[in-house]
Each structure stands twice: as structure tokens, then as C-alpha cells.
Amino acid sequence: MSKTPTDNTLQAIISHAKEYGFVFPSSEIYDGLSAVYDYGPYGAQLKKNIRDYWWNSMTQMNENIVGVDTAIFMHPTTWKASGHVDSFSDPLIDNKDSKKRYRVDHLIEGHADKLIQNGDQAAADKLIADMDALLANDDYVGLKKLIDDHKIHCSVSGTGNWTEIRQFNLMFSTELGSVTDEASTIYLRPETAQGIFVNFLNVQKTARMKIPFGIAQTGKAFRNEIVARQFIFRMREFEQMEMQFFIKPGTQKEWYEHWKNERMKWHLSLGIAPNKYRFHDHVKLAHYADAALDIEYEFPFGFKEVEGIHSRTDFDLSRHQEFSKKKMQYFDTEINQHYIPYVIETSVGLDRMFLLILSHAYEEETIHKEDGTTDMRVVLHLPARIAPNKLAILPLTKKDGLPELAKELMDECKKSFHCFYEEKDAIGKRYRRQDAIGTPFCVTIDHQTKEDGTVTIRHRDAMTQERIPMSQVKALVQEAINN
Ligand code: GAP
């Protein structure tokens, strides 16, 4: 058996995700809703497993990190204090002929990609460097000139007939209650972080936390993204897994390094090759940060951000103190002083992590058989700990007492992990279906099981099979999950 180069095209992954019940376009019967997706049976389970793995690595493996679950709706002043009402916007440009709207950075990056495809890496690098410098200074006149100078055209109209560049706020708003006036306008949170900041003292006091300590949360966030593309990479409704780590002012550099390294270790613990990851330091810092970087992964469409590590200073707590007129200070008993803590944030998108895992796991594999013929299978090499199903239990036939034996094993194992039971179809076909959803182990119950209590266990990746006592199956699977 040999493996062909992985076909990791995004299109193949999208089709596979839909065919096998991982991800569907939202409200598909009405032709879907742009940049909004639903998770199907295996997708919902895989997403939960990734979320749980993150949650446990934060709140179970660190004695000084606790979790919260705060509301999506928050008092509107929260977003004035956080700076999102004034600054959470993207520079946009419209093409006057096609009326198509673009994010300026995406438009320029798209042109840089074309330069790379044409073999002119140096010109692409220069273009991106020029763009970063102009973005860092909010120089929209300069950015417009850059677009004009490079003759960057709209992909729909093919013209370079552009409007001026304008800012566009990314927050969705709605009304609380039935009266429409400005005071009742509230926002769907664009990040989960602010629910943590406004609860900083509630958590610190009730959980009796001492600095340094962290507060973690997972939950939905909403952004009115203009360029919504690349499947679940950029969505309008998505989920974040965020942790704010509260520290003594002046210690931010060392904690920034600490979390940068810890988070990379977490990513690599999922068995992904280090060369698929890289750090990208921010040139243009968000309004709240004094240092920031992205952890980038090489998706089928290139290296892109999956997680942000931000040194947020005391910006958020100070602003909430100013706007709410409530003290946000911490009393440090070790130095007998009050201060507003500094914060290091780790923020990873759950849906992006899901796409990362799928891109990494997906393989179209050619199998060279002993008789000289070849066969093909699509397999998801999901780590056992996050695979939706851990074990498929497959009686060889529907009769002769085999289903009864299989159900016995099912009852024993399902209390500990997700199992899947199936009697229908030839065994080879059943194996292929499990490969396609990433089930790490299949067990076949046959007539020999009745005689000596052994079963055939098949390993997904190597496709090897071995005969083991049925009584050992649960421990074997459990060990793989814990690894
Ligand atoms: N609290 C900080 C914050 O929200 P961010 O860099 O804007 O920082 C953090 O977002 C992470 O959230 C990103 O690294 C990405 O994984 C995810 N994310 C952001 N916007 C997203 C979108 N439109 N769709 C999917 N994931 C998104």
C-alpha cells in the first residue's frame, strides 16, 4: 500500500463535510445564507470534542484558570468602553461598475497572490510590505493610490473604477424590547472577551483567585464580515475560545512569551506537523494591544490566522472602570497595593480550528492491493481523542447470535466513549464509511467470537487488523483516546 499526495483542496473538503454530515450551508432549502453554516451530526460532535479539549486544557490542567459562560447581549456601554463602537471597523472600497464591495487588505492580498502565481514573489512581498505600512498609519489616500498604481481591478467588472476608501463597522445591532430608539440599540457581541472583563471582580472574588490567574470562555461571536468566503474560515456567526490572563503590570512580556509557547504546544499536541504552523507578529496593533501575534496554519489556501495572542495592557479594565464608574482594581496582598491588572489574551476560533483539523485529516488515498489492482479510499486521520466516533462495532452477519454479542460490547463501551453500531452492507463498505468520518477503530464480531471470545480490530490509518479478546477492546480504545 502506498499513499498518493494528499488532495487537500478546499472544494474536496467542503463536499466531504457536506456528504458525511459534518457541515451544511445554513437554511440550505432557501439557497443558504452567505457565510453562515450549520453543523451536522458528526460535525457537532467533532466541534464539541475540540471545544472540550480546549476547555479542559485551560480550566482542568491549570489550577489558576476558571471558566465562565456570559451572555451574548451586553449593556451597550460595554462596546463604547471597549472601543468597538468607534474602532471596530474595516477599510472598504466599492467598485463603481459592479457595485461589489471589498475589504481593502483582501483586495490587495488577492493581487499579491496573483503576482506569486506568476512567479514574482519579490513584487508580492513589496506590495504586502507597502500595504502593511499604509494600514499601520490608517493612510487611506496612500492605500487608494497603491490600488491605482498596481492597476488592481474588480474580479466582477474587470475595471479599476473605485470609490474612495471608507470605514465600515463590523458589529451587528438590534433593538431590545419593542421601541426603536438609540438608547435601546444593543449589539451582538463581536468577541467573547468583554463578558470576561466586565465580570473580572465577580470571578476573582467568588472563586478566590489570586493574580496571576485566567478566566476562560467559549461562545458565539458575530461580525458583519464583508468578504465572507473560504467556507467556515470567515463566518458572520462563529464561535471563539478565549482566555484572559490577569497579571501584575510590568510582567506582560514574560507572560506573553509564556502563552505564545503554551498555545503552540497545544496545537502541536493534536499531532500536527510543526512546519504547518508559524507565528506572525502584528505590524498594525489593535486599539487595545501593546504586542500581538497570530498563530498561522497552512490551510489549503495558504498560511492564515487561526489564533491570536494579544497583550491587552490594562486597556479594557481601565475603560470599564472609566465608563461604569466602578472600581476594577485588584488588591495584591503580596505587595500591599491596589492596581488594575494587565491582561494577556489567547483567542482561537473554534470553527477555524475545525477547518484546520479537517484540512489536516483529509486524505484521498490510493491503495495498492496484492493482486496488482488499486483501490481508493477517503480517510479522515482524526486524532482519536477528538474523533466523533471512537469505535464502530460491526457484526459480520445479522444472525447466529452475532448482533447479541456486538450489543454486549456496545453496552460495555458506550458508557465511556462514543460508539457506532451497524449491521448492514458488506464489511469492506462499512469500513470505508467509518474511514470517511474518521473513526479510529472498527471491531468485527464473527463466528469465531462465539467460540473463543476474540474479535478482529481494524486500525483506521494503517488498515491493519488483529485478533484480540473482546474483553480487551474497551481498554485499547480508551488508551488511544487518552494518548
Ligand atoms: N478577543 C480578541 C479577538 O476577537 P480576533 O483576532 O479578532 O481577536 C480571534 O479573533 C480569533 O477568532 C481569530 O484568530 C479567528 O480564529 C476567530 N475569528 C475571528 N473572526 C472570525 C470569523 N469571521 N469567522 C471565523 N472565525 C473568526
Secondary-structure map:
Elements: H1 10-19, E1 23-25, E2 37-39, H2 41-60, E3 65-67, H3 77-81, H4 84-87, E4 89-94, E5 101-103, H5 104-117, H6 121-136, H7 140-149, E6 166-169, E7 173-175, E8 185-187, H8 193-197, H9 200-206, E9 213-222, E10 237-247, H10 252-268, E11 277-281, E12 291-299, E13 302-313, H11 315-324, E14 330-332, E15 337-339, E16 342-349, H12 350-361, E17 362-368, E18 374-380, E19 391-395, H13 402-413, E20 419-421, H14 427-437, E21 441-445, H15 447-452, E22 454-459, E23 465-469, H16 473-482
Parallel strand pairs: 3-9, 19-20, 19-21
Antiparallel strand pairs: 1-2, 4-5, 4-6, 7-8, 9-10, 10-16, 11-12, 12-13, 13-16, 14-15, 17-18, 21-22, 22-23
Helix pairs in contact: 2-12, 5-6, 6-7
Any overview of this molecule?
By secondary structure, the chain is of the alpha+beta class. It is 35% helix and 26% strand. The protein has helices spanning 10-19, 41-60, 77-81, 84-87, 104-117, 121-136, 140-149, 193-197, 200-206, 252-268, 315-324, 350-361, 402-413, 427-437, 447-452, 473-482; strands spanning 23-25, 37-39, 65-67, 89-94, 101-103, 166-169, 173-175, 185-187, 213-222, 237-247, 277-281, 291-299, 302-313, 330-332, 337-339, 342-349, 362-368, 374-380, 391-395, 419-421, 441-445, 454-459, 465-469. The strands form seven sheets. A seven-stranded mixed beta sheet has the order 3-9-10-16-13-12-11. Helix 13 (402-413) links the parallel strand 19 and strand 20 (419-421). The longest helix has 20 residues, at 41-60. Bound molecules: glycyl-adenosine-5'-phosphate (GAP). Glycyl-adenosine-5'-phosphate binds at residues 191, 193, 223, 225, 234-235, 238, 240, 242, 305-308, 345, 347-349, 351-352.
